Amino acid sequence: MYRVAxxxxxxxxxxAAVNKSGxxxxxxxxxxxxxxxxxxxSALAEMAGCWGLDLTSFLGQTEQIIHGTTLVLNALLEGRGxxxxxxxxxxxxxxxxxxxxxxxxxxxxxxxVPRVLVPRRLRLGVRERLDYRGEVVIPLDREQLKKTxxxxxxxxxxxxxxCFLFSFQNPAHxxxxxxxxxxxLPGVVVTTSAEVSPRIREYERTTTVVRNAYLTPVxxxxxxxxxxxxxxxxDNRPIYLMLNSGGLTDARTVKNFAVKTLLSGPAGGAQGGxxxxxxxxxxxxxxxxxxxxxFDVTLVVDGKCRQVPEAELAGHPVTLPMTDIRSIGAGGGxxxxxxxxxxxxxxxxxxxxxxGPACYGRGGTEPTVTDxxxxxxxxxxxxxxxxxxxxxxNRAFAAVRDNIAVPLGLDVAEAAxxxxxxxxxxxxxxxxxxxxxxxLDPRQFALVAAGGAFPLFAGLIAGEMEMREAIVPLQGPxxxxxxxxxxxxxxxxxxxxxxxxxxxxCDALNALVGDMLAEGNADLDRxxxxxxxxxxxxTLEMKYQDQHHEISINPGELRFGPSSAASxxxxxxxxxxxxxxxxEPGKPWEIVNVRLVCRERAGGYVYPAPxxxxxxxxxxxxxxxxxxxxxxxxxxxxQAVKVYGAAGVxxxxxxxxxxxxxxxxVLVPAGFTASTKAQGCISLxxxxxNTKKREECCNES
Length: 701
Known about the structure:
Mean pLDDT: 89
Helix content: 25-40%
């Protein structure tokens, strides 16, 4: 039997598969931008061939397909969602546009504001009102609601979001309105805020349910197509989607909750980072994944990825638990351009897989980071993508010359180097954002170089930031897909409770947690997870009563008694002091939200054996052992470096050197030594004057 993980990005679709014996295969295939589902089936057929099977036999023996995709996030960023309407409490239809009255630059009145997904004519008020306790003040006006339905029919909406005041305390009005809408508008997706995010704060809840309504038809249609295409080969196709929080849920669930998969792809990489931390016994890692379109950074601290109760995406908050992932538009396909002021910019726009970088020969004429790397000698045009795509040097040269070198008065090599160095600087800034800006010293972390493109930059960035080591996992080119293989099925639940220190009600808290636990276990029952293989994690979101934002603490228990107030009090003040450098023990506090995770215990990861990397199941070198090539990575200009093929890498390599694998190339900068360590990883350690320190650094991995 096989377990298969698929990560579909803007440029490549990555697949990792493992059988019951622990053997693993990995491959990359260009993403089909017109029909990603068709591209997945094609890539699965190629993976089946790696195991010596046809696609029907392979899928028939596959017990689980895990899928992560940037489809939903891209639809949000590109404005390709469904035609959506919003029903709100009468008089509050503009909450979505008013936001919190904050601007990115408060003093710039011309600064653009985030795009509103629902135009004002489709934001409609409904006569009803609950008070802050959830008690009815004005009953739901059903006659007015029926007239509103007629208007929605005339507008041809595809999806409706319902968000009434204080529905997190009492969802009755939302549920009644949703029932009318579903009966009167067959085929239209209806989503209520009480289903998606039953939490306090009107604007945040509204924007979350609107995004879900806007994106759900897109994801549902995509999954229907994928299931239909897979059904042509096998009925045995259980598909699980990666959640923002790093867990898995079935396709049936996310067809109603697309917003839970906004970070579906990168969340797999975060899970993989946790697995690396445990396997290498390196609890503090910066996991950086450079793909074709984006550069995603995740911190692993004390062996765990950071989780946040909400995040801001495309200018609006999403109040759902998420892995703390920071992304910038800096990938191998990021386009370089010169603006009207003569500045060289790299990203965030990407050439994607089609037309792709100019060197792909698929019609692209704009220069990208990949084109620059080719011109600098960092890429072998004959072995790119496992030898399946020959890079065109002349097209890359013309793209950089015409678009960058000529406008800036540089020669082509200087222009390519500028693109390369700016891309590296942007990625280094992203790493500083999650470390230095949060009060953490990057020198205390090791840098994990994931993604097919990042090993060309990781050593230089680690040296610039004085990080002790850069680790290149052999599974790095498909790191997010590989990380999904270690994820577990789970249910994320969140509820508002509003319990203060002055009136601590352990019975009310126990009742709330009990209801959430029953709901979470019902989902695990549906998945067939045995009770002994389940685990739970409870988080309280708390604040001082005059504060605006909460911090998270783990109380370490699921049931509370009279003495629990004291332990919660101690944990809250301690965590506040750790985060902000002070606490105020005399001030009353408040529990605002309760979060509960119910999941199956995660299984272990399978790691590639040292020296193993295959995309076509072949053995032996993919290039001649130890040749030399002229490369340029800095102001020193061109220099000859040794180039080693995958099968010819010696135990230690001193930089400068290039290590070429089917789907990635590792740059070993001058002043670094590369060596193979635990789990088949390649460790890049800075050569320092104290040899003992260097050995300690590398031996830790």
